[in-house]
Write a structure and sequence with these properties.
The chain has 2 domains: about 55 residues, no CATH class; about 160 residues, Beta-Lactamase (2-Layer Sandwich). With about 240 residues, the protein is of the alpha+beta class. The protein is elongated, with a radius of gyration of 31 Å. The protein contains 8 helices and 5 strands. Helix 4 runs parallel beside helix 8. Strand 4 and strand 5 form a beta hairpin. Helices cover about 45% and strands about 10% of the residues.
Length: about 240
């Protein structure tokens, strides 16, 4: 038995140390002298049990019922606050990662280096396991896009994946598509696919971000930051290829 946690020996210790003992009478006296104590320490309401009021057989004591509801509500609100703080911190971390990735794009000294940043450095910057850049097969006719690290898709595949009105597709529990993720498809259990609208003169394309952890991306997530990343990448690519927006 851990006697350091046995509160029954506290009065004896206080007496041995020459301090006055504290018992129910002393506690009650203190509370009477400090009437706002419980109001100043509302967390105690979660652990205190009020006395039941006896009003006869068949009569329910609503005081205890109401206090239990209050305790449950306080606990629920606290859990919500913790979840909100956790989500806010995660959002700030994601925002910082996206900003670092965009700055890396802007600092690329060449188009080939830009592709290397996307297909290699982005994995570290975005805390992902597999990242690829994919364009539809008409890109083969464009010399600038015939570079290592770009996955080639069949024509119409981007529209099939996203549909007409969606630019970000989040997959929470999936298996990586080899046509999109190439050799790294076997690692992917969660993915974010971002449509790239480079130019009317450029082939349809996408940025694929894959994670080996199922649920890292899921349909309930916000997509504003990912959309900003995709737009930034599209603008930078258009600039290097001298294409109209």
């Amino acid at each position: 038995m851990d006697r350091t946690k046995d509160t029954s020996i506290l009065p004896a210790r206080r007496k041995h140390a020459g301090l006055p003992e504290i018992g129910p009478v002393e506690v009650a006296t203190y509370l009477r002298q400090h009437a706002s104590f419980l109001a100043d320490h509302p967390d105690l309401l979660q652990v205190l049990t009020p006395p039941a009021q006896q009003r006869g057989d068949g009569v329910i004591d609503m005081q205890q019922f109401m206090l239990q509801r209050l305790q449950t509500e306080v606990a629920r609100v606290k859990n919500q606050h913790r979840a909100l703080i956790t989500t806010s911190r995660a959002n700030l971390a994601s925002q910082a990662r996206i900003h670092q990735a965009v700055l890396a794009l802007l600092a690329a000294p060449s188009f080939e280096h830009l592709i290397q940043i996307v297909t290699t450095d982005f994995a570290v910057l975005l805390d992902a396991d597999v990242i690829t850049l994919a364009v539809e097969s008409m890109a083969c006719g464009h010399s600038h896009l015939s570079v290592r690290g770009v996955q080639l898709l069949e024509r119409g595949r981007v529209e099939t994946l996203f549909g007409p009105d969606r630019d970000v597709l989040l997959q929470g529990d999936t298996h990586g598509d080899p046509a999109v993720f190439g050799g790294g498809a076997g690692l992917v259990r969660s993915a974010a696919l971002l449509r790239l609208k480079v130019s009317p003169q450029a082939p349809a394309g996408l940025l694929a971000i894959g994670s080996r952890r199922a649920g890292k991306f899921h349909p309930g997530q916000g997509t504003e930051l990912l959309g900003f990343l995709a737009k930034s990448l599209a603008v930078v690519i258009a600039g290097w290829l001298d294409l109209p927006p």
